[in-house]
TrEMBL record:
The gene is gpsA. NADPH binds at residues 13, 110, 147, 268, 301, 303. Residues 4-166 form the Glycerol-3-phosphate dehydrogenase NAD-dependent N-terminal domain. Its EC number is 1.1.1.94. It is found in: Cytoplasm. This is Glycerol-3-phosphate dehydrogenase [NAD(P)+]. It comes from Teretinema zuelzerae.
Length: 351
């Protein structure tokens, strides 16, 4: 039976998910901030700005009216970048099917949300904003899933994490197709940490990858060393923040997503690491706060740069030893030259 699905955020990932769902026959409406994105999806069935080259079925439509997109939907999928997610959600609280809790909500965003105290996880933040009935009922969806490959229908595995198994199963059934395999998890904290922190490691990986291209000292072996040490740091953060299932880190949402984000040609965090070394992209920013405030000037979205600020704060507050994440923080904050970076983190990391 066709279900009504709204997607908030027509970037590459929201659009690719919309294409996948529409191909399944679901009725999908996408909210786009940009008028030209609405226009291009509704006329030529392509998101020319964020996912060019992929044609959507006609049952995927777009609108600039966010409340209309959220209204009357069985499922609502949030796909905004972490910087805008909480603000965007607050604009939807008076939509009747959200106010009464009848729409099942899933989140695709990867990152942390700043707060007055310690940075928060996404579900924790949204639970603080949404009606009480959404507590323990939001579904967090992550895994190794570059938008381009999902839009192509390449076989992809996702994890739907929720403390209420009824909701993860509802999302699993709604999303799954021949190309999209969806598994359930109860470890909402572990899956969120993996999704946010792997982006930080992937920026560091991109730096190493660019350095290794011209190096007699670093190569593929060194990259695997960084990847394994990065997974170790992700586990340290996860354990400190309350991940409940150790196997999350070795699942597709852990090592799987870390691997694809570090190694895929589509990876933007990896690309950002490359651009730090090859294009001196940090030259135009004074420090990490300046970079985050002007992130759109990069021209693509490296969530790992934003998450790095919050991982650093969490590490300081909880006294966590994270040489890769903290080393990258010092680079992005202009406290250390990229050239020093790799050797320093290799000297300091533990596997
Ligand atoms: N692209 C991918 O392959 C995947 C992305 N994700 C995650 O999905 C989230 C969204 O990423 P993408 O779709 O790739 O983004 P994108 O880089 O393709 O698009 C940027 C998005 O930001 C929105 N935006 C810009 N300024 C805004 C504002 N002031 N208020 C609200 N929205 C604003 C744009 O409308 C657009 O939807 C991120 O957290 C990302 O880590 C997760 C898995 C895969
Ligand atoms: O989360 C992703 C893949 O699972 C996307 O990673 P990038 O943002 O680095 O492209």
């Amino acid at each position: 039976m066709s279900q009504k699905i709204g997607i908030i955020g027509a970037g590459a990932w929201g659009t690719a998910m919309g294409i996948s769902l529409a191909k399944k026959g679901q009725e999908v409406e996408l909210w786009a901030l940009e008028a030209d994105v609405v226009e291009s999806i509704n006329t030529v069935h392509e998101n020319k700005k964020f996912l060019p080259g992929f044609i959507a079925p006609e049952n995927l439509t777009a609108s600039a009216d966010i409340k209309k997109v959220a209204s009357g939907k069985d499922f609502l999928i949030l796909a905004s970048p972490s910087l805008y997610l909480a603000r965007t959600m607050k604009g939807l609280l008076d939509v009747p099917n959200i106010a009464d809790g009848s729409t099942c909500i899933g989140i695709l965003t990867k990152g942390f949300i700043p707060s007055e105290g310690s940075p928060k996880l996404i579900l924790e933040t949204l639970e603080g904003v949404l009606p009480e009935s959404y507590k323990k009922n939001l579904v967090y969806i992550a895994g190794p899933s570059h938008a381009e490959e999902v839009a192509m229908g390449k076989v992809t595995g996702l994890v739907a994490a929720c403390e209420n198994p009824r909701n993860s199963i509802r999302f699993r059934e709604a999303l799954r197709s021949k190309g999209l395999l969806v598994y359930s998890s109860f470890d909402v904290i572990g899956v969120q940490i993996c999704a946010a922190a792997k982006n930080v490691v992937a920026v560091a990986f991109g730096c190493l990858d660019a350095i290794a291209e011209k190096s007699d000292v670093f190569g593929d072996n060194t990259e695997s060393l960084l990847l394994a040490a990065g997974l170790n740091e992700i586990q340290i953060i996860g354990r400190a923040m309350g991940a409940t299932h150790p196997e999350t880190f070795t699942s597709i949402s852990g090592v799987g997503d870390l691997d694809v984000t570090c190694r895929s040609k589509y990876g933007r965090n990896r690309r950002f690491g490359h651009d730090i070394i090859q294009k001196n992209i940090l030259d135009k920013f004074s420090d990490l706060d300046d970079l985050i405030a002007r992130i759109s000037e990069i021209g693509y979205l490296p969530e790992g740069a934003v998450a790095c600020k919050y991982v650093h704060q969490i590490a300081q507050e909880r006294n966590l030893r994270l040489p890769i994440c903290n080393g990258l923080f010092r680079i992005l904050n202009k406290e250390m030259q990229p050239a020093q970076f790799i050797q320093e983190i290799l000297d300091g990391m533990e596997i």
